[in-house]
Amino acid sequence: MADLQPVLDVDGVNAVLRRAFPSARPEAFPTVLEVAPGRVRVMTPYSEAYLRPGGVVSGPALMSLADTAAYALVLAHVGEQLMAVTSSLTMNFLRGAKPGDLQAEAQMLRLGRRNAVCDVRLWTEGPDRLAAQATVTYALPLP
Q1: What is the spatial distance between Cα 80 and Cα 94, in angstroms, rounded to a whole number?
Q2: What domain count does the chain have?
Q3: Inside any domain, residue 3
Q4: Residue 2 located in a structural domain
Q5: DSSP readout, 80-143?
Q6: pLDDT tens per residue, the chain (143 residues)?
Q7: Which domain holds residue 79?
Q8: What global pTM score does this model have?
Q9: Which residue in 10, 22, 57, 71 has the most C-beta neighbors within 10 A?
Q10: In 3-state terms, what secondary structure has residue 98?
Q11: Is residue 5 part of a domain?
């Protein structure tokens, strides 16, 4: 959806996320690195707390980043709509995510009046070695 134009930039989205989640630990909170038409890139710093037995990043950590990346994408394109809520999240785990900073790129598949559908790809090693892919739908509040 290259015709989508963000209404918030990187600093704007990060500021809204910090206001929306004031009790989140800053050192472990996802940071929006890039905002572009129809997409965002988000990173969560590595923490051993994200590992599961076997030494790979846990599913809940990946799902949390997928949801946050989709929320950041929605905020970037509709503005400060804090009451946008997840209505669906489908996660596909593709390979074990090795320890490292968690990266996600979210792309808008559809932005309507009532919902937004996002594709989110996640990795630790590089975008050419995806650990997971999610489809996330956000319900948007009525104007």
Answers
A1: 33
A2: 1
A3: no
A4: no
A5: S-TT-EEEEEEEEE-S---SS-EEEEEEEEEE-SSEEEEEEEEESS-TTS-SEEEEEEEEPPP-
A6: 558 999 999 999 999 999 999 888 877 789 999 999 999 999 999 999 999 999 999 999 999 999 999 999 999 999 999 899 999 999 999 999 999 999 999 999 999 999 999 999 999 999 999 999 999 999 999 87
A7: 10-139
A8: 0.95
A9: 71
A10: coil
A11: no
